[in-house]
Design a protein that fits this description.
Blueprint lengths: L16 E7 L2 H11 L4 H4 L1 H5 L10 H14 L7 E9 L8 E12 L4 E10 L2 E11 L10
Antiparallel strand pairs: 1-3, 2-5, 3-4, 4-5
Length: about 150
């Protein structure tokens, strides 16, 4: 079995970043509603959503926030990272069909506490839709066994 390893805490550098791009689909909203139990009509019902200030359906904020989790868990720091916290703010709605670029950047590294703080941003057409700060526990480098 191949061992999948993320970036060790002592290999992380301030300013290091990773990103992923996802397109929001109708199926994503349906699946997220089923998993989360959030069937708010602003996400699920176009007629209702047109009567809101958003003038149409918008993606769940937690769905968009989960894109950050994907980058943290798969790329930076990657496998083995533990998501400890997320402080986020939304600026613009994300809609079905939007291509969302999610970027995380190392803001600080605390070797003693085994934590990193990441600046996170989600963009659609170059505009910031959500900005966040994530705290992540990161594994230390494993010591090699002596032969």
């Amino acid at each position: 079995m191949t061992e999948v390893r993320g970036i060790a805490l002592d290999e992380m550098e301030i300013g290091q970043s990773a990103e992923a791009v996802r397109t929001v689909s109708e199926a994503d909203l349906d699946m997220f509603a089923k998993v989360s139990g959030d069937y708010n009509p602003v996400h699920m019902d176009e007629e209702f959503a047109r009567s809101t200030p958003f003038r149409g359906r918008i993606a769940h904020g937690a769905l968009v926030a989960s894109y950050i989790s994907g980058v943290l868990g798969n790329q930076l720091p990657g496998p083995g990272a533990i998501f400890l916290g997320l402080n986020m703010r939304f600026f613009l709605p994300t809609r079905i069909g939007d291509e969302v670029t999610t970027r995380v950047t190392v803001k600080s590294v605390d070797l003693k506490a085994r934590k990193a703080v990441m600046d996170c941003v989600c963009l659609v057409k170059g505009e910031v839709t959500m900005q966040a700060e994530a705290e992540v526990m990161v594994r230390k480098r494993r010591r090699k066994a002596s032969a």
